[in-house]
Amino acid sequence: MTERKAIEYWLSDMDGVLVHEGRPIPGAAEFIGRLEESGTPFLVLTNNSIYTRRDLSARLATMGLRVPPESIWTSALATAQFLSDQRPEGTAYVIGEAGLTTALHEAGYVLTDIDPDYVVLGETRTYSFSQVTRAIRLVERGARFIATNPDPIGPSAEGSLPACGAVAAMITKATGVDPYFVGKPNPLMMRTALNRVGGHSESTAMIGDRMDTDVVAGVEAGLETILVLTGVTRKDEVERFPFRPSHVVASIADVVAMIAS
Asked: Which residue, 172, 112, 93, 169, is CA-closest to 140?
């Protein structure tokens, strides 16, 4: 394996790496604390588009994780930036929560169900049949189909919930139109994150709990990759994939010592 440069910038997934079902994972507070103490640039990434980054910062703070809003990057923010670059001050019909609608408003977008440029699908705990029906009809009429992330299910205390990828599949089945997914594993989200943190691929690490989103996104972006075994991917599943992480560790606690002091 080619020798890499020392890690100077850190990107970390949130769910399954720092938190799990509303609780901090042991070692997460120490990881964030070490980054702040050393002045190391970092960004916490999430495909969750429900919350604004201020909301997420507040939620993490209640768990003892002090992550400033500017150190959080969501699929909603990446989607808003992508659409602003593609079609400035456009229009969109949006299925999602405040994290997505706020990001699009701040990017100069008008949210409407009248002949929009895009149908934008994000995460919500209240997907409705009428919203999905409206999205299908707008896509049939020519609206471009964008989705924040491809995750088919999301976690909850009661078990799995249908997520953005599952609802996107429903719209695709009805229209024959595939969405463009902006969130992980799209390297676009990783590149925008790198730009935000001011990092370079050869000296940046990506920490994640999923081989099929976090690790593959890091690999395709040329980053050093660290898989933690506190989330979705189990150790015995790693060999099934045609790509490998740079490191496999038990949890974020094992990463703390890797941060340069």
From this structure: 172
Number of domains in the chain: 2
Residue 223's domain comprises 9-47+184-258
Closest CA to 252 of 233, 238, 232, 231: 231
> Is 236 annotated as catalytic?
no
pTM: 0.93
209 flagged as catalytic: no
Q: Which of 13, 117, 209, 214 is catalytic?
A: 13
CA atoms of 132 and 229, how far apart (whole Å): 35
Choose the final residue of a domain: 181, 212, 238: 181
In which band, very low, low, confident or very high, does the pLDDT at 260 lie, cut at 50, 70 and 90?
Answer: confident
* Percentage of residues of the chain with pLDDT beyond 70: 97
Q: Where are the beta strands (DSSP E) in the chain?
A: 9-13, 19-20, 23-24, 42-46, 72-74, 91-95, 110-111, 118-121, 144-147, 153-154, 161-162, 180-181, 204-208, 224-228, 247-249
Enter the DSSP assignment of 9. E
